[in-house]
Amino acid sequence: MIEKFGISSQKKYELIDLTGHVQKIASRIDSGAIMLFAPHATGSIIICEDEPGLKEDVIEFVKDLFEKKGYKHDTIDDNAHAHLISSFLGCSKLIPVEKGKLMLGIWQTIFFLESDGPRERTVYVKVLS
Q1: Alpha carbons 127 and 33: distance in angstroms, whole number
Q2: 3-class DSSP string for the chain
């Protein structure tokens, strides 16, 4: 069975912590994995440390790397940068689960990286056991 939950971004770029939502689902699993998937062409799922400076660095990095003028897609809706970010960072992650716990490292947090907000988004969660 696939579960889903919604998230809302408030800014053009934003990191939204998904870990609590995903851990609730993981708590019902003895051993297996969870696959996260965001069905959005302008958002990404990433794992990094939940430290304010690093979160700002991630956003500044993707802006520096991907925001530029002259993308052909921008003539349609001015969000080519967000499509490229999602294409390179990806919209899914697979995380092992053991004894009801996500097997994340001590500093790892699961985030949705919004690159084209504000928007309403959906994240799908598939339990693999």
Answers
A1: 6
A2: CEEEEEEECCCCCEEEECHHHHHHHHCCCCEEEEEEECCCCCEEEEEECCCHHHHHHHHHHHHHHHCCCCCCCHHHHCCHHHHHHHHHHCCEEEEEEECCEECCCCCCEEEEEECCCCCEEEEEEEEEC
Domain 2-128 fold: Jelly Rolls (2.60.120)
Identity (one letter) of the amino acid at 4?
Answer: K
Q: Are 70 and 24 a contacting pair, CB within 8 Å? A: no
Average pLDDT, the chain: 96
pLDDT at 50: 97
Question: Diameter of the chain by CA atoms?
Answer: 50
Does residue 5 contact residue 122 with C-beta atoms inside 8 Å?
yes
Q: What is the pLDDT of residue 1?
A: 85
Q: Which of 110, 107, 104, 118 lies closest to 89 in space, CA to CA?
A: 110
